[in-house]
Each structure stands twice: as structure tokens, then as C-alpha cells.
Sequence to fold (560 residues):
Amino acid sequence: MRGPGRWAVLVSLTVAALVMIFPFVLVALNAVKTPEEYASEGPLGLPGGLHLQGIVDFWVRVDFGQKLWNSLLISGSVAVLAVVLSVLNAYALGIGRVRGRLSILVLFLVANTLPQEALVYPLYYLAKEAGLYDSRLSMIIIFTVIQAAFGTYLLSAVLGQFPKEILEAAEIDGAGRFRALVRVVVPISRPTLSVLLIFFFIWTWNEFFLPLIFLISNDNQTVPVALGVLQGERYMDATMSSASALLGIVPAVAFFLIFQRTLTRGVTVGAVK
Amino acid sequence: MRVRKKGYWLYLVPSLVLFLVVIVVPFLMNLGVSFTRWSGVGTPRWAGLENYARLLEDERFWLSFQNNVALIFAMAVVPTVLGLLLAAALFDFIGKRFGPRTASALRAMYYLPQVLPVAVAGVVWGWMLHPSYGAINQAFGLDLDWLGDPDLALATVMAVMVWFQLGYPVVIFMAGLQRVDPAYYEAADLDGASWWRKVWHITIPQIRPEIFVVLLTCTIAALKVFGPIFVLTRGGPGNATLVPSYFSYLNFFQKSDVGYGSAIATVLALIIVVVTFLFLRIQERES
Fold:
């Protein structure tokens, strides 16, 4: 296409992009307004200055620092533990090629597609019996298993291609099986493992259904749960609502920017999920 | 090379134990409970297929699946079609005429909603669509109860979900397009083929695997949808946005009708496994 046509395409794609980011702009704009400015100027007016009171009020009211810490603790622990489990499993399945590996892989894959709704009540019941209900530990255990099911599936395929010569060389050097895993397989697979680590972290951060049910006390709630539950509360006025939305957006966008390189490399990895 | 490698299964033990406790046992318990009447306390009473019989006659159950089909349309079909057009346009026009930087900047803007936790996306739109102080009504001088009007609520949720999902197919399809041999397009150009014909005859067949993956993953995500419904509408008004996932949650935790909730969850799990299986079969046959 030549002439004005290509500009028409550029303009329409740009308009579409602006529509997509319009909510982000509006949230940021209105989170730093005073309630009076919102009342008089409406949502599209520019704020007179950087008014952070709405954000501070909301932060203090819900003890947002605690929510951030809970989310970080749960997502970070799950990411590390799920990568460890995935590596152990994939070592046995991809390199060790243990008997029945195909059926084990299918089992993990099916587990990954199962809706959490079909597990939630028994998990809730068992957690109560075990005294783990309303604890961050319960979430760490459950999501470690769920994420590791996916990680095992993916990593087994990757380790299936692992060069045999390297393992044989390690063996000749007298390295035992565990030593070969820690000293040879893990360092060489580091790029894949870091992609998995980041995906597990973000996926766990974004979870809502199980944390909503398991984390009922304020001290244990994660960021999405706290924001989701408070949405539409009486005391939330327009500017405080946008402040709460902004506090949900900022960490997510920050992770995206920090991990962007790894994520774009791995987005096709995520597509398998 | 050793003759036979033994002892590797030891590395599976921790996962298999955890897997048994967190996935297998709860799944079987859920299945078992679906054949009982149980309030969550005391002993479940055997009820045979009663819950499943009740499901078949429950208007709300059928309605929840009807709404779910609408959400599959909004979360899988629409984003795939729009994503295909956007990715092809970005790749063919923007990337080639205005440089790859412009193309990737636009792509990042389409992708931005995808980085949000879906519940946070719900919070953003809950604020924007609020009937009294919401930004949409105020900005456009409207007076609509987007999420509270039974005739509007489902359409509104669908629109929000299109916004949320769109970036995913755009990114996947653009990655797929890198793989396509430019010679196809050059040959089509020589034949004077229009852009639409090229999309239809070259782009779509070439990135068929990506289209499959996107349709499958988005359909499964739509079948599991819970967060946005909880945050935006709680299934209401009436049952206008009720979905199976939220319906089972209601029975589990609000109505203490655990047997019935388990039956709904079991049916949902079955549907998801069957859909996955069908997709994989079709894909296998195609290639």
C-alpha cells in the first residue's frame, strides 16, 4: 500500500493503542487529584498538582505494605520451590527417562488444565484439618505444586535434549548423580530456569481464586485479593478508587518492565500453558 | 554409558507425594462429595446421582453455561480475530514502512492490560464504570448503569475481557509471523494480490499453530473465568453474568451446598479436559 493508505493504517492502529492504554492514563491521572478537583473538573481534567493524599489514605487504611509483603513472600517462595521441584522431576523424566515417564507427564499436564474449582473445597477442608487454613504457608504449598506441574512438563522436554557427552564427562570425573545435577545440569539450563522462575512468580502474584478463599484475615491477604474485595466498598470515593487501582497496577507494570527481556524471550513458553 | 540407569525415580518422590496430597486426593474427594448431600460439617450423606439430576433441571446452571459461551466468544474468538488483523497490520505496514520500533511500541501498548492481575483489571474497570462517579459516564456525559443493568451487564463484562485479552494473541501472532518466509509475500505481490488476500491465503495458514494455541489457552481461561466476575458483578444483576465457576463458589461458600457445588465443579473439569483433548486431536490431525 502506498500514499495516504499507509498513514490511515498507522492512524487507526495508533487510535486502537490509545484506547487500550486509556484506562491506565485515567487511573494515573485521577489517583493524584483531590476529590474536589474530581467533582469540578471530572475524570478528564488535568490534576492541579501531585496530590498523593488519596494514595496515602488508601495505603494506610488497608495496610498496603503488609499486602505487598504477603504477595512477595508467597510468589517468591513459590517461584523458587516450584523451580526446584520442576528440576528434580525433569532430571528424572528428561535425563533419567524413568519407566512410565509418559504417563507421569500426562498426569502433570492434566493436573495443569484442571480448574481449581474442582480442588478447592477438599483443599479448604484439609487445610482446616491441618491447621493451615488462613495461612500464607497453605498458599505456598498449593501453588508450588500447581506451578511445578507445568514446569515439569516444560522442563522435561528441554532436558530431554540435554547433550549426553557432558553428562558422561561428569561421570568420568567421578561426579555422582546429585553432583552432576547441581554442578552440570542446573548451570547449563540456567536461562530456561530463570524464565520459569519469573513466570511462576508473576503467575502466582496474579492468582485470585484460591487466595480469596484461603486468605481471609487482613494480615495474610495478597494485593489482588485485598483490592478485589474492597472494590465498590462504601467508603471508596472516586479518587480513592483510582488510587487503589493504581496501587494494583504499579507492581504489575514494574515486574513487566524489569523482566521484559526474559518475558519476551519466554512468551512462547507461556503460550503452552 | 552405564548399561541401565537406576535410582532416578528417587528425584520424583517429593513431587509425587505433594502431588498426591494437593491434586489427586482433593480431586477424588471432590468427585466423591459430588455424589452426596453435605453442608461442609458433619458426615456427607450418600445421594447417588441426585446432584447431577438436579443440575440438568437447574435453570441457573444452564444460564451460567450460556454466559460462559458468551465469554468464550469475548475472550477467545474476538481477541483471536482482532489480534490477527492487528498483528498482520503491524507486521506488514508498520514494521516495514515505519520501522520495527514503532511496531514494537504499539505492540507493547496492546499488551499492557495483559500484565495486570485479572482482579486488578476488574478493579480498574469497576472504578471506570461506576454508575455515579465512574469515569466513563462522566467523560462521555452518559448515565448508564453499565454493570447494574441486566441488559447491559454481560455485554460490558465481555467488552472488558476483550480489552484484557487482546494483547496476548497480538504478541504470539507477531512472534509467529517472524517465521514466515518473505518469499511467499513477494510472490503474492508480483501477482498483485490485495492485503486481505495475503492475510487469508498466506498469514493465516502459516501461523495456524499459533492460532490453535491461542484459541485453546483462551478458551480454557474463559471456562475458568472467576476473578472479573467476582470483582465486577458477583454474577449479577439477577443471574445476568453468572458463570459456572462462580456458581460453584456460591454453592460451596455461601449456600453451604457442598455436594451440589462439587457436582458443578466436576462437570466444569470434565468440559475443560474434553475441550483440551478435542483441540489437541484436531491439531494432530491437521499436522
Observations:
- Chain A touches chain B through 95 residues (CB under 8 Å).
- Chain A is about 80% helix and 0% strand.
- Chain A has a mean pLDDT of 88.
